Structure prediction request, 74 residues.
Amino acid sequence: MKAVCLKVTIMKPKKPNSAERKVAKVRLSSGRAVTAYIQGEDIEALIYTGFVQSGVAQRVTSRSKYGTKKPKKA
Prediction:
């Protein structure tokens, strides 16, 4: 999957962790914009995104965390 870099920035993780993480906001070829972590010190380092979860479309609870639409009632 290809991606276009929109913005490179530094983020701080949630408590109790502390560091300055180098991240990039990228738009994937699927049209989705995600935050990607830049590994290592070099700008040529690999950029990888989070995880892809299977079965998200059938979620009923915690839908807002996964961006799932509300299921239609029959």
